[in-house]
Amino acid sequence: MTPLMRALALFAGIFFVVNLGFDAYRAGGLTAAAFASAFVTTAIATLLYWLFLRWQASRKDPD
How many CB atoms lie within 10 A of CB 23? Predict the structure, then answer.
């Protein structure tokens, strides 16, 4: 597993658990809507984090 994939997996796992907790609290329990919301939000956040990491890596490359 590459360092980038490891960072993304760790981020997505932690983000999903925390987000699911908030969504379940807001929905009044673990519902299908809470899981769906947590999954979609995690997917979008992970994509944005990946873009940020790629942008940071491109800035560190010497020209």
Answer: 19
Give me the DSSP letters along the chain. Answer: --HHHHHHHHHHHHHHHHHHHHHHHHHTS--HHHHHHHHHHHHHHHHHHHHHHHHHHHHHS--
Calpha distance 54→48 (Å, rounded): 10
pLDDT recorded at residue 59: 82
Instruction: Note the pLDDT tens digit of each residue in 5-47.
Output: 999 999 999 999 999 999 999 999 999 999 999 999 999 999 9
Rg (CA), the chain: 15
- How much is the pLDDT for 62? 64
- Contact by Cβ (8 Å): 46, 53: no
